[in-house]
Amino acid sequence: MVLFGVLLLAGVALFFIDEPLRAYTERELNRRLPTYTVRIGALDLHPISFSLDLKDVIVRQREHPDPPIAALAQVHASIQWSALLRGRLVSDQWIDRPVIHFTRPQAAKELEDSPAKRQSWQEALFAMHQVQLNEVRITKGDVTYRENATSKPLHITDLNVTVENIRNVRSKPQQYPSDLHVEAVIFDKGRVQLDGHADFFAEPTMAVNADLTLTDIELADLLPLTVQYQVHLSKGRLSATGHVEYAPTVQVVRLRSLTLQEVKGDFIHAAKTEKQVKNTAKKVAQAAEHAANHPTLLLQIDQGKIENSEFGFVNRTTSPSYRMFISGTEIDVENWSNQLSEGTATIKLNGLLMGSGMTQITGVFRPETKSPDFNLSVKIVNTQVKSMNQLLRAYGGMDVTAGVFSVYSEMTVKDGNVNGYLKPLFKNVNAYDPAQDQDKGLLTKIYEKTINVVSELLKNTPRGEVATKADVSGPVKNPEASTWEMLITLFQNAFFDAVLPGLEGRLPQK
User: Fold this and answer.
1) Which is nearest to 405 in space by CA: 327, 483, 467?
2) pTM for this structure?
């Protein structure tokens, strides 16, 4: 009878202890996490199994409280008996249906705090544990990131994470002791999977060594991020397989395969973003210089493919604006790397310039040391010149009604010098049509008629082609420019010097 009474009193005490323990736990979490506020809806203690449940946990950033950083439906923590038998007090944790939602201001706040004020993620994760946290399972997680109030959110669903041996109970430190498995749905259709190991207590940041698989990631959903760099993606899918190792002393991203399918994207150059474009280009150049032959950084693509894609350049700083594009693009990349030790990369491109000109580009690119280093061959055949009228109006004050355009180029960039040429050819160009141009001013009509006469005089082949040639040999003016920045500059300068000679001056307005 006495034993029954003791058990009854113990049961009553345990029934009433949940609320004080909930309040204590909530108070301790807020004390240990000064940049956050934590609210716990309920706490259930299970003394027989040495476990407890936290329900409806809400975590907010003090600086930007809305939306909550995290909403956890249930957190279950229990003592790990296998570790207890070895004299270690560690726990397992199961987090069910966590909802993570953060915005750009919240992310910026996390980054702007000084290192002295900023709490590491380890501190935030383990603040609630008097015992050592060793294994974590996350099921059916949901993560949302939003650039601003009107942008489409970046959304990750069905996030499942399994992490074991976090506290190095069974392994030596500095050997990626924790087993790691992550899988999730990206943007409703794509999938990501990460399998490998981690060291959650590496300093100054955690270390990961794992295989990575990305499947059918919709690129259009990245628009809120890419638009900041003037890149507008309207469609496309990304898939990749590879290996990632990120640690304080080594950073490796080696993709065995990378595939982009049916991409449609434009780089938008506008007056209001011109300064931003220059700053972005400068940062890209600095990043390329920093990455080239970096002692601890390896970026590698063994096999890369871009299939059935369209890439464009839109210039809104001219009058009129224009868009240059290449469609039906097929690109093969082999052995691209930022390290000289990994050898040279080869790139082959096939497509249609302005939807009509058969385009073939082949290149051999060597990892940059002090300046870009590559060989390039370009062949563009029978582009309809009429498709370039907006460009011709913007830079030459004219348009055409017929004719085709071809271009051939060979160039080498090495040791700070450029050697090569760019040779465009025009055939059957007609720059004046009385029916089409009846509403144009007299000076414009005379100018375009003159272009036709000059074309007839300059024909230098039996096929009636007009040829000019631009020499692109000489020292590199900006050896710190990235390879892609230099390619754009070379073609832009050579193209306008060769294709539009004498048209730099604007026509009088009608």
Assistant:
1) 467
2) 0.75
